[in-house]
Amino acid sequence: MFTKRPRRPEPDPDSWGGDPSSDDDRRSGPARMGVGAQVYVLDSDDDPATPFPYGPTGIVVRAGGSAWQGVSAIGGSARTWWVEFDSPQIDRDGDGPVTQAQVAERWLRLAPLA
Prior knowledge:
Elements (H helix, E strand, L loop, with lengths): L37 E4 L15 E7 L16 E10 L8 E7 L3 E3 L4
Antiparallel strand pairs: 1-2, 1-5, 2-3, 3-4
């Protein structure tokens, strides 16, 4: 038989990272990879096998595939994201320039907050 899991208590609003005097009701948590995330691709200094050796920056515009199906993309089969680059890029093989590419999540890092 199914059992009902107990609900976890809500965290204190002060721990959300927002201004407690603010009227903004939205909760903010740790940044996550997803549509709208500002990212950079690892450069060749971080990993010599990177698909874009010059470490381009961009924004995630859509998911690249599903965990339920094998997805082949630059970087191998894994969870992937379509990244729109800030400027056209040449890949490791010299192909391009491209303004968007499907990139495996293993090559992506969230851009630091300004």
